[in-house]
Structure formats: C-alpha cells, structure tokens
Amino acid sequence: MGAGHGHHHAGARHRWRLAVAFALVAGFFGVELAVGLATGSLALVSDAGHMAADVVALGAALVATKIATRPDGTGRRTYGSYRAEVLASGLTVLIMLGVSVYVVLEAVRRVGEDVAVASGPLLVVGALGLVVNLVCLVLLRGGASESINVRGAYLEVAADAAGSVGVLVAGLLVRLTGDGWWDTVVAVAIGAFVAARALVLGREVLAVLGQHAPHDVDLEAVVSDLESVPGVAEVHDLHAWTLTSGMNVATAHLVLRVGADAQVVLGAAGAALREGHGIEHATLQVEALPAQECHAATW
C-alpha cells in the first residue's frame, strides 16, 4: 500500500499530540456529562454528546496512525485495515444523531414545565470546556497540515469549541434573565448544529463505503489526461474510489497505439494520475488495438 505510507507516517509523527488531546477530551467529556445530568442542563448534555463524538474521532485517528505500521498477518486484508477509520466515523455519526434526538425529545418533554437550571455550573463547565478545546487546538495545529487524520481531529475539536461557547452563552442568559428556558433553547441550537454536521459526515461515510468517485476527482479530466499520454489511443473501464480519507485509488484500461512502449506509457500515466489528480495508487492495464472493451465481463 504505497499510497498510504507517507500519509499515515506523517500522522504517526504527531501521535503524541493525538494521545494528549484524546486524554483531555475524554476526561472532560465525563465531567460535562455528569454535571449536565446532575443539574438537568440540556445544553451541557448536548455539548457532552458532541464531545463524545470528538472522543471517537480522536480515538479513530490514534488507531489509524497505529494500523499503518501493523503488518497484516492473515494475508486476506489486501488493502490493509484502513477502512477502520471510516467505520469509526460511521459510529461517530450514530452517536451525534443519537444525542441530537435525545435533546429534541427532552426539549419537547419540557414544554409547559418550569425549567430551573443553575447558571453557575453552566458557566464553570462551559469555561473549562473552552479551555480544554483551545489547548487541544494548539496541540493538534502542529500536525494538521501534514496528516489528514490529525486535520480531521483538529476540525472536530474546533467545532466542539463552538459548542463550549454555546454553553457559556446559555449560562449568561440564564443568569441575566433568571429564565431556565434559555438552557433548552441553546441546547436545541447545539443539537441542530451537531445533527447537521452528522448528516454531512454521514454522507461522506456512505460515499466511501459505496465506493463513489472521490468528490475532488474530476473523472472527465482524468480520462482526458490519460488520453493525452503519448502512445495512448483510448481509455475505458475507469474506476476511482476512496479507500479512506486522503487515500484515493483507481483502475483503468489503456488502449495503446501501434508501436507504443507499454512500460513508458504506464510510467507516464501513473505520473499523470499522481501529479494531476492526487491518485498515488493506480492499477493500469494496457491493451492493444483494436480495443476489446472488456466484452468478457458480465457486469
């Protein structure tokens, strides 16, 4: 899996940053959830759910950096275990949606009730959460430009920082107005934000598992660039998909012109995919004229 080595080794260099951020976020998640349940604050519970998604995302990034250096002893996982990151992201989506549904149902249940929420715990926990997120952002920023895993974790923590700000806003509004309903209003806002992000992430997960063409790869441009390679008469049976974040792969059949050197064509085609489209791992098959168009295939 030459396509993935540099990507994951870059993440491995920053593994300690992910480990520290994971410990901080996981520890504070427990605190925020406990205080939220004890005080009846939906805003805290909602933000704790978002932080739980961060725990899973950071854990997935840690696992992904470890998997890259672990050889496959079974001989059956020909693509390695890189999809573990995608499956973990799917679990993150379920957690985020579950929290959003819980918050909405609890908000509906509170309609018509006198809601009493202490502003003190909201302000203290919100402020501590913001500090934890800012520390994690500083930690992860150093590796965000080198590793897609670290960058994904960085963006998750950045979004959670916005949730901590929401908790602070809820605490201030409750203290200024004396109305505990502000806690519910802010909680629903955070829940809607989390649900929207979950749906976006869910679409990405389904696209990867469904082996859709990567969103940043223009298939028509790929065909055009391959057909521009000297010695290539035609390109067919092109497939491109994402193995995991930052790892796009492709297969294609290249029909050679008479007299073309197959090795030279393969080298030039591979370079065109790497340099022009970020596809570092491609399996290319050469065919002679006339093109057979894979008539033997049944699907």
Detailed description of the structure:
This protein is mainly α and 299 residues long. The chain has two domains: 2-209, Alpha-lytic protease prodomain-like (Up-down Bundle); 219-288, Alpha-Beta Plaits (2-Layer Sandwich), CATH 3.30.70. It has helices at 2-13, 15-39, 42-67, 83-109, 119-144, 148-177, 181-209, 219-227, 262-277, and strands spanning 232-244, 247-256, 281-288. α9 (262-277) links the parallel β2 and β3 (281-288). The radius of gyration is 25 Å and the shape is elongated.
Largest sheet: 3 strands, mixed
Structural class: mainly alpha
CATH fold field value of the largest domain: Alpha-lytic protease prodomain-like
Gyration radius (Cα, Å) is: 25 Å
Main location: membrane
Subcellular location: Membrane
Pfam family, one: ZT_dimer
Transmembrane segments: 18-42, 48-65, 86-105, 117-140, 152-174, 180-200
Entry summary:
The protein has 299 residues and is mostly helical. It has helices spanning 2-13, 15-39, 42-67, 83-109, 119-144, 148-177, 181-209, 219-227, 262-277, and strands spanning 232-244, 247-256, 281-288.
